[in-house]
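To: structure desk
From: M.T.
Subject: fold request, one chain
Message: Could you run this one when you get a chance? Sequence is below, nothing fancy, just the single chain.
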Amino acid sequence: MTQPVSSRKYRHGRWLRWAPVVAVPAAFALAFGYAGGWLAPHRLTPKRLIDQFQANAGVHPGYRRNHAKGVCVSGYFQSSGQAAAYSVAQVFTPGQRTPVVGRFAIPGGNPYAPDSSVPIRSMALRFTQADGQQWRTGMNSMPVFPVATPQAFYAQLQAGQPDPATGKPDPAKLAAFFAAHPETAAFRAWARTAKPSASFATDSYWGLNAFEFVDSDGTRHAVRWQMVAQAAADGATPPDNPDYLDADLRRRLAQGPLRWTLRVTLANPGDPTDDATRAWPADRTTIDAGTLVLQATEAQDSGPCRDINYDPTVLPDGIAISDDPLLPARSAAYADSYLRRTSEEAHLPGAARPSANTQPEARR
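Reply: Done. Structure tokens follow.
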């Protein structure tokens, strides 16, 4: 690998206090599944993972099994040109404007959950380059992921499954899970003080997983990225309206476009690229790759994001996956969820089949 790259019991009440963050399984815009032999099929498959999401949140036909409640957005990405030295992806060409179809959402498989039920928000984006290639990414408003492997994530989902007698996760099971997984410490520290924001527009979103940029010489650069909000949080308390995030987004966009800065961080040798629980040191080189400009929003049941599978392994030339085991797992589980919901959509009264030209699984 060329440079710069990686060489690669709380009390009962304390658990209950932030159990929803963990128990709502999609707290992380991320789902995992079987891929490429990292687990024997009899132990873990995409089906078992998605079945567990359903066991935790119920089955809501036609909706995503994770991040079920969301809204479509659209706009464009304006490249600053600063990332072009590290990646040949057309999206980073100096001055290039690339159309974007995205989706904001909250965690969980319940499309009727109140927006204040969890403190995490997600941003998913599909960049469509002029050459037809796509870059799809899913990000979350938290700096680290709780676990590093698909196996551990599945165990977390199981620990967070609601008890039929109470409708809530069993604190003892959550405690046992965290005791067995010390790597969750950084996420738990963040979750203790995290509060639901009043707006999608004022949150920043982390990619969490490492990827690789590939430059014109074929040199690979390990990177992570973040969409940093240009709108400042105003300290507003979330209103009682259970759907306030959608209302706020529409209000803001009626006044003008919303913007985020894409910041790309380059790893130093030795920085972990296979562990999303570990943040890289703050002194790493960071570049301003450009500006995301969102101009419109539509309901997810009829908007342009409806038929898109935001598989983060759909990448253009110049961007590649890293050795993070969560990435191929996410791809497999996303595909299982997509097939379930689109099959259900086809049988819902008055529902239309997904448009053929969307090609949500295509690696274009």
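Reply (cont.): Residues 1-41, 351-364 have pLDDT under 50 and may be disordered. Let me know if you need anything else for the meeting.
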